Fold this protein.
Amino acid sequence: EDQVTQSPEALRLQEGESSSLNCSYTVSGLRGLFWYRQDPGKGPEFLFTLYSAGEEKEKERLKATLTKKESFLHITAPKPEDSATYLCAVQSDNYGQNFVFGPGTRLSVLP
Amino acid sequence: DGGITQSPKYLFRKEGQNVTLSCEQNLNHDAMYWYRQDPGQGLRLIYYSQIVNDFQKGDIAEGYSVSREKKESFPLTVTSAQKNPTAFYLCASSINRETFFGQGTRLTVV
């Protein structure tokens, strides 16, 4: 059975304090790993897709990396507006086009 | 503006009632999905549809029903058989591995 875990569950940072969020996965045949941002009471907003180990993608203060067992979302010099829940999801051979989601990491960036 | 529209934003259900959540998309996507989100848990798949007039059960389909009579629309009915329906419901559509979500409907049992 495919599984996705995320750590930490919650993270509080001071503005400008860089850190990383972790997404660990156990799947049969990874087809893609996805990162989403979700604000309270809203739907998830797409950030990145990673397809193979060693791949990296960047967007503003965010950088996503992928290994064979985990992905990291690095946040450089975060600002209060980066506060949100960050969700990780995978697509695998078991589930085809469907996702298996992790529980998310709730990030708070304090001014 | 292209996107996914869910309505209503908030919905209250009495015990024993069926309620229907609306999801409409104008992105011309074939695939549509319904997820349920509970605090501290990942999104869980309720139903999905890859094409009009066809849909499949996801991981937690019991107590729910769907229809897909039009490409643009994928309504979800929460039936009285769903014993714990209070949750945040998200509709999504996808094409070529890009998935877009609506803004969600928060359902509360009163």
Notes: The interface with chain B takes residues 4, 9, 31-32, 34, 36, 41-46, 49, 87, 89, 91, 97-104 of chain A (CB under 8 Å). The mean pLDDT of chain A is 94. The first strand of chain A starts at residue 3 and ends at 7. The radius of gyration of chain A is 13 Å.
